[in-house]
Amino acid sequence: MTTWYDKAASLQADGRAFIGGERVWAKSGQQFENLSPIDGRTLGMVARCDGADVDIAVAAARAAFEDRRWAGKSPAQRKRVLIKFADLMQKHGQELALLETLDMGKPIKYSQTVDVGGASNCIRWYGEAIDKIYDEIAPTPADSLALITREPVGVVAAIVPWNYPMLMAAWKIAPALAAGNSVVLKPSEKSPLTALRLAELALEAGVPSGVFNVLPGYGAEAGAALALHMDVDCIGFTGSTRVGKQIMQMAGQSNLKRAWTELGGKSANIVCADCPDLDAAVESAIGSIFFNQGESCNAPSRLFVEASIKDRFVEKALALVPNYAPADPLDESTVMGAIVDATQLKTVMGYIEAGKSGGARLLAGGKQARTETGGYYVEPTLFDQVDSNMTIAREEIFGPVLSVLSFTDVQEAVRQANATQYGLHAAVWTADLSKAIQTSRALRAGTVHVNQYDGDDITVPFGGYKQSGNGRDKSLHAFDKYTELKTTWIQIG
Ligand code: NAD
């Protein structure tokens, strides 16, 4: 039987950009080396695209949009192509999963289910949706007819992060392509491989050349050139709040392109003493923070537990922590893999030091692991006696680090939960229906969970309040980002 190790050994990753239906190197000839966080091995060279390549890709996307080779197809025709695209992703699912794991370090088990499964489902869902959406006729006076129609915005730039490379790309490109736009996607320089392969599969499925282009490269080069480009109509950005602010500035400073941002988080998970199932709450709190090595925007990194049950809760949590010890991402049984690169490893270790020196009590983890592999691994880490003012309670760590805080009054817990620049996700665990509803209403977050944390479906919007961003990925609402609303008045004789 061929193992994941055999497959990894024979894998040839192509790091060239994808512009106008072809694989090309950057105009400058510049490349960068792509290292795997699993063991530091090289995965090959990647095109280091910059402003010159952005100009070419945007021109290709614009030409494809203007001649309507895609936008002019009926929704049913676009649907058929996108469904074929999703089928091809599943057909090549093992290859895509392997690329994702090698490039980003996540366990192969989840690359197959969450990443390939989720991304192909997303492409399929928007394909299925697009020929079921109707426009509107307004209730105007009888001497006229006013049509309210949706049109594609034109050229969409999608800039995505490295934590779910394929899934974040799919959340942008699926609604943008379904609506008839042309797209230029810039994956993170830390994990560019699956996005490039997706472009080939889209072409094979029938997305015309020029409609979907992928430019790997650095943020300050390819990313900024896209955000500043005068011929990009809309930018869909997922990443840090720091860069999100720059994206909005660049949009304003250039052509006022529509700028949608899905940014960072510091989500609060509030467990009340009347929680209906303490074991479920513990499993969810631990499983959700350590999933994807803690590199999830919506990770519940601040755990507020009511003081009367806190010791019991922490004891149960500590019993589960060893299950998340980092292991080889290519082993099917692994649940926690490698941190994406040396820079992120340093950031996470810096926060662990800040937790210790800031006065929090380290109860588990706190160290690097598997250093002999040459890869980047961090032990699942749990801090108790955390105060809301501590750095580890305020800043997004983006690593496997949980901060436990306690409260005696749920309203105080909500106040602290809301006392952050972020507003992505939040949760409350209680058997009291009124308390659940009052608390979920009071929490300033784009998604609030009650007695669970893993509710997730393509049918519901995903995005944040406050500095967690202004956009919503997923669901039919995502079409609002990639379409213009047009009113057409018709005089009736
Ligand atoms: P990042 O902001 O550093 O980079 C994101 C993307 O922006 C990358 O492709 C990067 O190359 C590009 N970029 C960087 N600087 C740029 C610039 N000056 N101009 C244009 N583009 C630039 O974020 P990251 O480290 O890749 O990802 C982690 C962040 O993403 C976390 O904050 C996480 O919470 C957030 N995130 C949010 C969501 C969400 O849906 N809200 C989902 C996933 C990740």
- What's the β-strand tally? 21
Q: Helical region count?
A: 16
**Portion in helices:** 25-40%
β-sheet strand percentage: 15-25%
> What is the name of the CATH topology of the largest domain?
Aldehyde Dehydrogenase, Chain A, domain 1
**How would you describe the oligomerization state of the chains in this entry?**
single chain
Q: What is the molecular shape?
A: globular
Q: Please give the domain count.
A: 2
| CATH architecture assignment name of the largest domain | 3-Layer(aba) Sandwich
Strand ordering within the main sheet? 14-17-18-13-12-19-20
Q: Which distinct ligands sit in these coordinates?
A: nicotinamide-adenine-dinucleotide
CATH superfamily (homologous) name of the largest domain: Aldehyde Dehydrogenase, Chain A, domain 1
Low-confidence stretches: none
**What is the CA-CA span between the terminal residues?**
75 Å
Pfam families: Aldedh
Protein name: Aldehyde dehydrogenase family protein
Organism: Duganella radicis
Family: Belongs to the aldehyde dehydrogenase family.
Written overview of the protein:
The protein folds into 2 domains: 4-263 and 469-487, 3-Layer(aba) Sandwich (Aldehyde Dehydrogenase, Chain A, domain 1); 268-450, Aldehyde Dehydrogenase, Chain A, domain 2. The longest helix has 23 residues, at 108-130. Helix 5 (108-130) packs parallel to helix 6. The chain is of the alpha/beta class and 493 residues long. It has 16 helices and 21 strands. Nicotinamide-adenine-dinucleotide (NAD) binds at residues 159-163, 168, 186, 188-189, 218-220, 223-224, 227, 238-240, 243, 246, 262-265, 297, 396, 398, 424, 462, 464, 468-469, 473. InterPro entries: Ald_DH/histidinol_DH, Ald_DH_C, Ald_DH_CS_CYS, Ald_DH_N, Aldehyde_DH_dom. Belongs to the aldehyde dehydrogenase family. Keywords: Oxidoreductase. Residues 26-487 form the Aldehyde dehydrogenase domain.
